[in-house]
Amino acid sequence: MQGMRIPRESPAGWLIEAPAKLNVYLDVLPRRPDGFHGIRTLLCPVRLSDTLCLRPDNALRGEVRLTIRSHHRSIDASQVPTDDRNLVTRALRGVWAARRLEAGCHVTIEKRIPSQAGLGGGSSDAAAAIVAANHLWDLRLTPEEALSVAAAVGSDVPGQLSGTANLCEGRGEQVTPAPIPAGVPCVIAKPAAGLSTAEVFSRCTPGEADGGSVTKLLAALRHGRWQKLPSLVSNQLQAAAMELCDELRMLAAAFHQFPFVAHQMTGSGAAYFGVCRSHQQALQAVAWLRARQAAWAVATCTA
Ligand SMILES: C[C@@](CO)(OP(=O)(O)O)[C@H](O)COP(=O)(O)OP(=O)(O)OC[C@H]1O[C@@H](n2ccc(N)nc2=O)[C@H](O)[C@@H]1O
Ligand SMILES: Nc1ncnc2c1ncn2[C@@H]1O[C@H](COP(=O)(O)OP(=O)(O)O)[C@@H](O)[C@H]1O
Predict the structure, then answer these.
(1) Cβ < 6 Å from ligand 2: which residues?
(2) What are the GHMP kinase C-terminal domain coordinates in residue numbering (predicted)?
(3) Complex prediction ipTM
(4) How confident is the model at residue 216 (pLDDT cuts 50, 70, 90)?
């Protein structure tokens, strides 16, 4: 797993950041025989992260003991599962199984990424756990092995392993690095309601996009041609999510009224993001959105 981030040691345990992602572009292709849709998506990490703290304890013999914390009042840590449904537990069990290892671990997750937002928080936690486990147990996973464990945990996990921007295809497991400039200011906001990924996909009418648009978007991002972004960013899950969520329609209307460079929903929602001209404009947008139904809004930038 060359070029990947590594965990850092602290008195509490090994720390690793798990950044949220924005889907700057998302095509939905027809449903496949395995029940998943083909997708073509550009995942871009931002400087909003959960933090994982891992304390290996092999005496736990295959068990993962999870503690979830949040200091942000709009993120309810009690809603995040701490049993086998947690994607971190599944990721750690996956890597140990790949090396036939009977290990164990205490993990504390400091949640800053809201759930059911399309920000990939759970998947990013899982990706970070795979990267950390590879280092802590000296597993020497090949990139292919890491991707395979990640894909078994969830469609969004492979694209978040590197912590950098990636073009993801297949059901999300075919990952190609896609350079997007770091430090581009943006705002992310979410209504109180969340959306289920499965439900949004089931409501979506897939397209037959040819991939040309994402190539144009990548070129515009690389060369800083911001004026082209409004016609190039795209999310084919957005219409289905809007049908399911009144609050999202209201939030979208607030985004339309603010002079963002470009804006759209991320993933299967219900978070929306706007690209800004400056960090100062991003801070103004947070205040604007909080005054107009956003239950949660942050100013951040691409990582
Ligand atoms: C839509 C995206 C875009 O990045 O992100 P989120 O909104 O979840 O953040 C992802 O494709 C989501 O990936 P992930 O959240 O890992 O999905 P999974 O757990 O694998 O699948 C949840 C459910 O979504 C549907 N699903 C998911 C991915 C896919 N390519 N086709 C699908 O049809 C399936 O019904 C599946 O049972
Ligand atoms: N570590 C985790 N953090 C957050 N949610 C998790 C985690 N592990 C499993 N989940 C479950 O996965 C669901 C989807 O994860 P979430 O972070 O909400 O991603 P997204 O909003 O991108 O679909 C959550 O609603 C939650 O029930």
Answers:
(1) 80-81, 85-88, 109, 115-122, 125, 197, 267
(2) 218-287
(3) 0.97
(4) very high
